[in-house]
């Protein structure tokens, strides 16, 4: 499918078995008493809620898992600027344009804090970017969908930033210090983003019949991809068990997805919009909404690079990086000149 952008609880709950399911080293389940002494001590620090800092000893699997997740997260923030950037020149008012620009700039900042957090684990930003540009690194599936109308700016803020916050608030308490601390500011900014999105939706829903239809159409297109942001269902999530044990993940993919549905349905009702899911219903007994099955084939297709905009996003990202080479070269030349002056003066 082509991209049409240019047209218009606590983890584990006392689990005592330690799963190593990511490709990060050992591949078997281990009980606490079977861990080597250094690893056991590490796990006990995690269980006690102690933050792990860059200079602390850590198992190689923990380091790799964090590099994987933090770098995917950083790439998502950077690539995530592209669907919205497409609407900067077409925002309906100067105020909306200024707000959208500020939001997109925030996303760039989030990417930079996250690359910095990943660098504390011994990888370089250049390595991470090279993997992204070569198409080897993942970023969130959501950013491979097109933004067809101004209402999509509302839907992204409301649903995509809304989902990002639900996922990221627990990360403020994750076990790795630099990641947890970066998330505090990111979440505050995401909260502004979600409100600006909902504000756009409110304005459209109070407008003409055509504007209300634009808002409904955007909700129809962004609802299911937003639910996919939380990752595969718990039964298919290969990384969750180990990440929960290491307190990188404090809630499961399905728990957070359910939280998103429960939070968003009343917001849609307030807007007078209909969630595009005939199976959606309130369950009095559980106190949660039940919802229909996600199209996992579509999710896996997007992850494999076959979503509506995967190729365009990557092409644009690589082009932007290449276009910025003169600036990076200039910064480097300036830094070298300053260093040479300092060493002459010393
Ligand atoms: N898209 O075993 P799990 C934002 C991959 S930021 C692509 O469950 P895990 C701000 C997963 O990486 C949005 N890939 O994995 C913004 C793994 O692959 P791997 C980004 C996905 O890590 C707003 C495989 O599937 N947020 O929106 C997706 O335990 C507006 C198996 O999955 C974060 O990155 C997906 N949706 O759980 C910016 C938050 N889901 O590496 C601009 C931090 C799963 O084994 C505009 N990350 N995969 O090859 C996380 O919380 C976790 O990494 C999950 C996945 C929950 C995303």
Summed up, the helix count is 13
Kindly report how far apart the N and C termini lie: 61 Å
Spatially, the strands of the biggest sheet line up as 1-2
Unreliable residue stretches: 1-29
Largest sheet: 2 strands, antiparallel
Q: Hetero groups bound?
A: Phenylacetyl coenzyme A
Task: Round the mean pLDDT to the nearest integer and report it.
Answer: 92
Instruction: Give the DSSP E fraction (strand runs of 2 or more residues).
Output: under 5%
What is the N-to-C order of secondary-structure elements (H for helix, E for strand)? EEHHHHHHHHHHEEHHH
Quickly give the structural class.
mainly alpha
The number of strands is 4
Question: Helicity, in percent?
Answer: 55-70%
What would you call the shape?
Answer: globular
The radius of gyration is: 22 Å
Question: Which keywords apply here?
Answer:
13 helices, 4 strands, disordered N terminus, binds Phenylacetyl coenzyme A, two-stranded antiparallel ribbon, two-stranded antiparallel sheet, mainly alpha
